[in-house]
Amino acid sequence: MRRSSGAVGVGVIGAGVISSQYLRNLTAFPDLDVLFVADINEARARDRAAAFGVPRSGSVGELLAHDGIEIVVNLTIPLAHVDVALRALAAGKHIWNEKPIALDRKSGRELLDAARGAGLRVGTAPDTFLGPGIQTSRRLIEAGVIGTPLTALTLMQGPGPESWHPDPDFLYQDGAGPLFDIGPYYLTALVQLFGPISRVMAVGSQAKAVRTIGSGPRAGQQFQVTVPTHVSAILEFAAGQTAQSMFTFDSMLRRKQFEVAGVEGTLAIPDPNTFTGEVVIHRSGGETTTVLPVEFTSTRGIGVVELARAIRAGQAERASGELAYHVLDVMISTSEASDRGAPVEVASTVEPTPALPEDWDPLARTL
Q: What is the tens place of the pLDDT at every residue in 238-287?
């Protein structure tokens, strides 16, 4: 039976690579009670549950039938995100979806409409923007330390994940590639800082049609690449700012960069695919100031805590499905702009939620 107070019951669907990081954190948060791990491969689910002290494991159906589970953490591959989430909603569970929320606008909207109709929540990764790195950057911008923010530059370049990921195929298929796999971190952070994106222009390319797995039991196997592996975009925001963003798996030079320039200075922001890191303020005359956000050891999964607390408080969650849908719309619009060779208007919009309190702590017991 669903609880009205106390720790929120959680079930995890998907026992792949990322589940270890999630489970390490989810089981450490006092406001969550992780009760079940499910996977198509039930042996893998059993191993994950045992590794992190989760009491039960088994099939997706068994997890959805568990009365104590209030939030389903959906860590399946992108192609399965919507189907699994809809099943969870039909079972009366709130959803935390790994990114992207969906692969197309229609199914993304169907998911949000189903949740609204059932009176349930959809929270969605990335939750990195809830970490001190982006939250501190946001507070500094809102405090006016660089004056009115005008432009941003973001870069994520590297050779791709096939050298270290044991099963990288899906990262080069529909719903992934550098735009859909890495883009959500940067685009979500940009929306938090500048507000909704209204128009995009873009170009894309693909360096190799076939890639080779470099590690793990499948090392040496080749797989097909079906999406662009380099995307460059110009983003226009409803409030008038602009940003240039590049996402590529085609560079042997690894580089990550996130800068916001205002009329009185420039802010160097930590990698939005991490949760913390130093923030550097650059002012005229070469003056720099480094701000070290509060120490923060928790990583992926803090959005589930924030969602759980929002459910108990009857408040809006910050890593919301509407935010994720807008980012999805922006990514699809970026792909369309690249294919057409022309700008694309972004139809959706979203209002950024307030910054977290400076003393917000996912490891605190609040419920």
A: 999 999 999 999 999 999 999 999 999 999 999 999 999 999 999 988 89
Determine contact, residues 64/91, Cβ cutoff 8 Å: yes
Amino acid at 210: V
Dihedrals φ, ψ of 222, to 5°? Answer: -105, 155
Asked if 25 and 54 count as a contact pair (C-beta separation under 8 A), the reply is: no
The total of other beta-carbon atoms located within 10 Å of residue 155's CB is 17
pLDDT for 311-360, tens place per residue? Answer: 999 999 999 999 999 999 999 999 999 999 999 999 999 998 899 999 99
CA angle, 364 as apex, 361 and 367 as ends, to 5°?
115
Per the confidence metrics, is the pTM higher than 0.85? Answer: yes
**Two tokens at 41?**
């491969």
- DSSP 8-state assignment for residue 144: T
CA 120 to chain centre: 20
Ordered DSSP codes for 84-136 = HHHHHHHTT-EEEEPSPS-SSHHHHHHHHHHHHHHT--EEES--GGGSHHHHH
Residue ranges of domains in the chain, CATH in brackets? 8-124 (3.40.50.720), 129-291 (3.30.360.10)
**CA-to-CA distance for 64 and 276, rounded, in angstroms?**
34
- Measured CA to CA, the distance from residue 96 to residue 240 in angstroms comes to 32
What lies within 8 Å, CB to CB, of 285 at 6+ separation is: none
Number of H helices, E strands in the chain: 10, 17
